[in-house]
Amino acid sequence: MTVQRRTFIAAAALALAGTTFPALAAKPLVMGFSQVGAESEWRTANTVSVKDAAKKAGVNLKFADAQQRQENQVKAIRSFIAQKVDVIAFSPVVESGWDTVLREAKAANIPVILTDRDVNVADKSLYVTLIGSDFVEEGRRAGRWLNEFVKKQPGKTFNVVELQGTVGSAPAIDRKAGFDEVTKGNAQLKLLRTQTAEFTRAKGKEVMEAFLKAHGKTINVLFAHNDDMAIGAIQAIEEAGLKPGKDIVIVSIDGVRGAFEAMIQGKLNVSVECNPLLGPLLMQTAKDVKAGKQVPKRLVVEERVFPAEVALKEFPNRKY
Ligand code: GYE
């Protein structure tokens, strides 16, 4: 084939693409995504959801794992700015300390979408929207379940220990606030200890061991800010010769598969759902933002409460 003929065919193909198949010619949206880490089952499901949704939506995803460190997230965001991505999305490990880097993104004209966790910035124009759960409401739901539970044993006082999530993170702050709000007037509940276990199983076990050493059988209730810490604590409780779910009532949050398994075995009493499947809504929102559409400042996902009694029936329907 001559050079001229080849050029002609290429030009004709391009013209065809431009007219008949515009999708082939369109440039894919490039998204830089900074993930918190891989600290929990929830986080793993969230990562899978984001990656799968990007593939399905034809979004070119640049994924960075921050290993639970804010400085890694700041670095990743700066590198996304340098690469001139179309949209930056991230799940901020903690709430504060984002003003400078978000101002840099704004100066570069790159829209920022928050997923899962909120930031604490004075200038709300530094991000377009936050897609995720209402963590205060999740904390309230955990507290309300506990209020109902203790009501069935009037006159009895319940000593509570609490495992908090990552210090300074939106879910740790908000879940505690929601739980405290609905339980503070309950004279049957007494908070013995509260400490962070960083949303991980290993830390959940370690901190629960310390709680048990200090307070032993006097602990009646554990409130864990996520299922993974509760699952770690269950091991500690069993190793101490006690029955999780019976000797110590356990309330946690997320509704991941591991929690359902623990509930089916009678070791966990309730898990408040937190939906990690944010990928499809994130991709749609990114496309809308890029197309110049107005999007709501807050997009909240629907969630439920799963007490142990329904765990077996609900298990086959669970997606994470
Ligand atoms: O509950 C926990 C994870 O930010 C909602 O982070 C998320 C929380 C989730 O590590 O398991």
In words, what does this structure look like?
- With 320 residues, this protein is α/β, with parallel strands linked by helices.
- It folds into 2 domains: 30-133 and 276-302, Rossmann fold (3-Layer(aba) Sandwich); 135-274, 3-Layer(aba) Sandwich (Rossmann fold).
- It is built from 12 helices and 12 strands.
- It has helices at 3-19, 22-25, 41-57, 70-82, 99-107, 135-151, 170-183, 201-215, 227-239, 257-264, 279-290, 311-314, and strands at residues 30-35, 60-65, 87-90, 112-115, 129-132, 158-164, 189-196, 221-224, 249-254, 270-273, 298-300, 305-307.
- A 6-stranded parallel β-sheet has the order 2-1-3-4-5-11, sandwiched between helices. A 6-stranded mixed β-sheet has the order 7-6-8-9-10-12, with helices on both faces.
- The chain is elongated and about 65 Å long.
- The model is unreliable at 1-20 (pLDDT under 50).
- The chain binds beta-D-fucofuranose.
- The site of beta-D-fucofuranose has 13 residues, from helix 3 and strand 9.
Secondary structure elements and their pairing?
Elements: H1 3-19, H2 22-25, E1 30-35, H3 41-57, E2 60-65, H4 70-82, E3 87-90, H5 99-107, E4 112-115, E5 129-132, H6 135-151, E6 158-164, H7 170-183, E7 189-196, H8 201-215, E8 221-224, H9 227-239, E9 249-254, H10 257-264, E10 270-273, H11 279-290, E11 298-300, E12 305-307, H12 311-314
Parallel strand pairs: 1-2, 1-3, 3-4, 4-5, 5-11, 6-7, 6-8, 8-9, 9-10
Antiparallel strand pairs: 10-12
Helix pairs in contact: 3-11, 6-7, 8-9
The protein binds beta-D-fucofuranose.
